[in-house]
Design goal:
Elements (H helix, E strand, L loop, with lengths): L10 H8 L30 E3 L9 E5 L2 E6 L6 E11 L5 E3 H4 E9 L4 E8 L4 E9 L5 E10 L6 E8 L8 E6 L2 E5 L4 E7 L4 E6 L5 H8 L7 E5 L1 E6 L9 E9 L2 H12 L3 H17 L10 H16 L35 H14 L2 H15 L23 H13 L5 H18 L16 H20 L3 H22 E2 L9 E2 L13 E2 L9 E2 L10 H4 L8 H14 E4 L2 E4 L40 H13 L5 H9 L36 H16 L7 H7 L5
Antiparallel strand pairs: 1-2, 2-3, 3-4, 4-5, 4-10, 6-7, 7-8, 8-9, 9-17, 10-16, 11-12, 11-15, 12-13, 13-17, 14-16, 18-19, 20-21, 22-23
Helix pairs in contact: 6-17, 7-8, 7-9, 7-17, 9-10, 9-11, 10-11, 11-12, 15-16, 15-17, 16-17
């Protein structure tokens, strides 16, 4: 239990709130009733905007979703500290609208070379239009929201800001004070302040579902003033001095700090120069960043060009500003990750070695070698364990979170070190050699495969292990460790020769010709061994009946040639089993009977949902894994390796961007509710958006098309096994 107000809100601040004017609303009461309020949750994950200043001084990030400001992260990218901020509109007597529910929203980017977003929310009842533009202050931890409110009826309306702080990744222990000077909240560790120019006319604190402003306004069209609401799920509400006629404009600042004084200082300091000045400095930072990179690759359409720039900025924005090199998977909490499965939230706010490798290689291709090197420093200096391995993932400070071992995540840092030419003795001795020795001692089997829910012999993982060992051998030779180099190559060569015998079935039900499996549990691909698919998929599935597009890592990393007959046949099997043609292009599922996605009615995935029994059709599963844009990018890289064009893959990925130019984790496919109203096939699901891996894959594919080959393929591996030396 947090302290009851003591040391959180000063006596002077509380007295100022109690003494603030109360004109135009119901009588005051000092403390809001209904504590602690309804259970705290997080907003949906399909974001349409994501922004932060390009520099490191302002440790605050914002997201946008369906007409409102959603999670704001402070003081790092693993810590959401605001759930949402939106507007309430009422005439004071006959209706009250909550902006998210009552409007249709359109997102634009006023400056395509900056993560500056604008929401245009138009009331479905035709009464008003709200235009909001978002930036963060490059000099302070504050988000600025420039608001223009327009009445479309010729009548004035009352407009309220409705803010739900969820400080330090927990929405149930906040304490708030609310007055015309601002909305303050703290949990004893982190504080927030919402301040307006012009100042607020009225303000009230309350508890979600009992005394919050929306609960009051929708029932009585008036706001009763509660100056304080200690220790609970606090929601703060304040009336803006706008009416849509004579007064149409206001600017909100959401400041953060370790105390309410610091948070208030950040907010007022950001408001002082005016929104235009702060927005100009914010945009200049992103212009400078883009200008420091290589000129963009040759792209066909303006949409591709803008998506490329946004993708680079999204990756840059995904790096923490305190723990440099820590790039998170996504600034979102899809489905149950933000409620029942992990609370406080984690999951996508964590750092995965594999995802970090994907992002670092993309940024390297774009010309940001500094970011790629910081990523490698984070992996080696903060994540790597004494035995040379890496945890499944970690928080942004490097603390292991989930502790399973995935052998591709042990291999990827070695490949990245080779790509960055990090061959110095200290790097080799302290990091590359321990990781390579761990692979030799523990591979090729992996406790978890690429999808983190099954272990065994995975062709994708083995490809990464082989590539990692060949790269490690090259670095060992540069350090005159010929004995280790020979041992690494000997192991890599053996595994390269045996990977087919471990993972290629010749009697499986999906083809009369040999094909790669997702994985085998025992290294015997012709055995009918069964296993659980994972992620709410079914149990008791024959390993010979499960394929995965990830086997193409064998080609991308140079372990097998693109023309290998088993590779070519497996592509046909994968296309038949997992490929889906959508209005946006061709995409693929992760593997047969994947359960990691929404329910057939569009309801969220949940790890606790029961799986369908063996033999049931895929569509009868409790949850269904949809198709992934990253596979379009990976197929494009394969096509290039095979000497074929890959432009259609880039076109497909471009087509699934949303109006904020953000790419999703998954796309609606052929299974219900796809194609129904609200679930258009070929568009992003409610999965993590933006997914940094999707944006990284887009960048790499764009550069690979320009180069004519996969740009992240380690040539030392391809030269050894495929005679393809680029």
């Amino acid at each position: 239990m947090r302290r009851y107000m003591a040391g959180v809100i000063s006596v002077a601040a509380l007295l100022a709130v109690l003494a603030s004017p109360d004109t135009g609303h119901a009588a005051s009461s000092a403390v809001a009733p209904g504590a602690p309020g309804a259970a705290a949750t997080w907003a949906p994950a399909d974001k349409h905007g994501f922004g932060t200043a390009a520099g490191t001084a302002s440790k605050v990030w914002y997201t946008l979703e369906h007409g409102e400001l959603t999670e704001v992260y402070y003081p790092d990218l693993g810590t959401p500290s605001l759930r949402d901020l939106q507007l309430i509109v009422t005439d004071g007597s006959t209706f009250a609208d909550l902006e998210r529910d009552a409007t249709t929203s359109k997102v634009t980017m006023p400056d395509p070379h900056s993560l500056t977003y604008q929401q245009i929310d138009t009331a479905r009842n035709g009464r008003y239009r709200i235009t909001k533009t978002y930036v963060t202050d490059p000099a302070r931890p504050a988000v600025l929201v420039d608001i223009s409110f327009q009445s479309l009826t010729g009548k004035p309306y009352q407009v309220y800001a409705y803010a739900d702080p969820s400080l330090t990744n927990d929405g149930m222990d906040d304490s708030g004070t609310c007055g015309s000077s601002g909305l303050l909240a703290s949990d004893g560790h982190t504080a927030s302040a919402v301040i307006s120019t012009p100042g607020f006319a009225q303000a009230s604190c309350g508890y979600l579902g009992s005394s919050d402003g929306w609960t009051q306004l929708r029932s009585a069209f008036m706001l009763k003033k509660y100056p304080s609401a200690p220790d609970g799920n606090v929601v703060e509400t304040a009336r803006l001095k706008v009416d849509g006629l004579g007064h149409q404009h206001a600017t909100l600042a959401v400041g953060f700090g370790s105390t309410t004084t610091a948070a208030e200082s950040a907010a007022t300091g950001s408001l002082a120069p005016g929104f235009a000045a702060v927005a100009s400095a914010y945009a200049a930072g992103w212009h400078s960043y883009l200008g420091s990179l290589k000129p963009p690759p040759s792209l066909t359409t303006s949409a591709e060009q803008q998506l490329y720039d946004v993708s680079v900025m999204v990756l840059a924005a995904s790096e923490d500003k305190t723990y440099r090199g820590a790039f998170i998977a996504s600034p979102t909490m899809p489905w149950a990750w933000g409620t029942g499965l992990e609370n406080p939230s984690g999951a996508y706010h964590l750092v995965w070695s594999r995802d970090l490798y994907e992002m670092a290689t993309a940024l390297l291709a774009a010309g940001d070698a500094g970011a790629a090197n910081r990523a490698l420093d984070f992996l080696f200096d903060r994540q790597q364990k004494p035995d040379g391995s890496f945890p499944q993932n970690s928080t942004v400070d490097g603390t292991p979170h989930w502790t399973n071992v995935q052998m591709d995540e042990v291999s990827d840092p070695i490949i990245l070190a080779w790509m960055l030419r990090r061959t110095n003795a200290a790097t080799y001795t302290a990091h590359v050699k321990p990781a390579a020795d761990y692979i030799v001692a523990n591979g090729p089997v992996t406790v978890q495969d690429r999808w983190e829910n099954q272990g065994g012999y995975s062709p994708a993982t083995i490809a990464a292990e082989i590539a990692g060992l060949v790269c490690a051998a090259d670095i060992a030779r540069a350090n005159h460790d010929t004995a280790s180099a020979a041992a690494y190559l000997r192991t890599a060569d053996t595994w390269q020769q045996k990977v087919a015998s471990w993972t290629v079935t010749t009697n499986g039900p999906l083809s009369s010709s040999p094909y790669y499996l997702r994985l085998t549990k025992d290294g015997h691909p012709n055995a009918g061994t069964t296993y659980n698919i994972g992620d709410s998929g079914p149990d008791g599935i024959d390993q010979r009946a499960v394929v995965d597009p990830s086997f193409l890592e064998l080609v991308r990393l140079g372990v097998k040639p693109a023309t290998d007959p088993v590779v070519v046949n497996t592509i046909h099997v994968v296309d038949t089993q997992l490929g889906v043609s959508t209005p946006s292009g061709e995409f693929w599922h992760r593997y047969n009977r994947d359960g990691y996605g929404e329910q057939p009615d569009g309801s969220p995935w949940n790890v606790g949902f029961p799986a369908a029994p063996p033999g049931s059709p895929w569509s009868s599963q409790a949850t269904i894994g949809r198709v992934w844009p990253i596979f379009a990018g990976e197929r494009g890289e394969y096509d290039l390796a095979a000497g074929q064009p890959a432009n259609s893959s880039l076109t497909a990925m471009t087509a699934v961007r949303n109006d904020g130019y953000l790419l999703p984790e998954q796309v609606w496919d052929a299974f219900p509710p796809s194609g129904q109203s609200g679930f258009p096939a070929g568009t992003g699901t409610f999965s993590a958006t933006p997914l940094a891996w999707s944006h990284a894959q887009y960048i790499r594919l764009a550069w690979s098309i320009t180069a004519g080959h996969p740009v992240e393929q380690p040539s030392v591996v391809a030269c050894r096994y495929t005679r393809s030396c680029t």
